[in-house]
Specification:
The chain is mostly helical. The chain has 19 helices and twelve strands. Strand 6 and strand 7 form a beta hairpin.
Length: 498
Amino acid sequence: MAGTKPGFAGSLVCQRKTQVHCFLHLGGLRTALYNYIFAKKHQGSFILRLEDTDQSRLVPGAAENIEDMLEWAGILPDESPRRGGPAGPYCQSQRLALYAQATEALLKSGAAYPCFCSPRRLELLKKEALRSLQTPRYDNRCRNLSQAQVAQKLATDPKPAIRFRLEEAVPAFQDLVYGWTEHKVASVEGDPVILKSDGYPTYHLACVVDDHHMNISHVLRGSEWLVSTSKHLLLYQALGWQPPQFAHLPLLLNRDGSKLSKRQGDIFLEHFAAAGFLPEALLDIITNCGSGFAGNQMGRTLPELITQFDLTRITCHSALLDLKKLPEFNRLHLQRLVNSEAQRPQLVEKLQALVKEAFGSQLQDSNVLDPAYMERIILLRQGHISRLQDLVSPTHSYLWTRPAVHREQLGTDSEKVDVIGRRLLGLLERSGLSLTQDMVNRELKKLSEGLEDTKYSSVMKLLRMALSGQLQGPPVAEMMVSLGPKEVRERIQKVLSS
């Protein structure tokens, strides 16, 4: 939530704005989501504004990635670089004239001044402060240069940075989350740079100028910007503009209270999308661990979040995110999609792609890609799996490929294998047979009756190995229903003939 890399500025025209870094991670998604929900709750527009004002730190594809990930999450901007709109342009690098105009007005009024300090001097100031165990700050050296001195320096350095003159009298403001707030920034900070020597603004100037020209009335952003808000209010005051209302969101932290780090590769949305987690599950878990809603409920959809959202319910406590619970959130949302006749065909298509990718040339029978077969598998395993990817794990490989199983692998003597196999084949040869789990369970219990020195559990282990080549897995009855009578018959016959 700084303004140096290309970032995401979710702005709600006449409603609110916020800043997030690329690539989009869970913290940024949460801020975007709160902005989106606030916009929809108050019939506003959700605007995506991209920060690309630090040309040295631009990341190729970052801007596109942010829009892609927001669309994947179902948080579609009403206006953005990709979509366009009346408040554009939406990339800050295309709004330089507005920042230059505001800077000129501040210079003319004396609220800003040129700074000629070299990067080396600024670095030395920083090192000296750290050596003295003090907070680094600019010493305002260029603040009181005379007009003659400025003119002389401009002759050799025509493109200095521009700093904003902080005032001691800072207006208090009522944050919509933290209440009345006031930070005497001039007593602890040096005057901040608002326009760099390359003509690009820093976040402090850009957010004020953009929010003014885009008619933003409410700003929702992370609590790390709470102190900087005093500087922004001074800028609004110096420019003669009416500031928006501010609501700072408490931080999203790891379960142990540590900060989410962009060095954690597993907090970026691409990671979750590639791993097969549903966007609905991510939206659910990041709102479930925080505040602003009517209690913590698992399984909420985006429309439900919009309905329940209340800005006054947001507390100042940090939100602790327990990603170990994500599979359970995902299981609930996957089950909801499975039970939707409109959504189920999309799950079938995704599963088809996963099976082709996972097994490829190992698929001996193309019938396993049949949509009806795929749908049967999804319906049977719903509630037992967290992600569609679970269905192509080694545990479920028997659904897509035939195992190579021989008699000696079944753990019992050859004669018993023949007896059990023949009894099962006899069951499958009944005319008009339609396998259901209840029926198969009853028949399997009958099948094991009369087998001396062989427990029912041993029969089930034998059949599981014969059908899947594995000692563990779903119940045998479910495996048989999944595979269907024809496939079960062929697998048993293959074992008997081995």
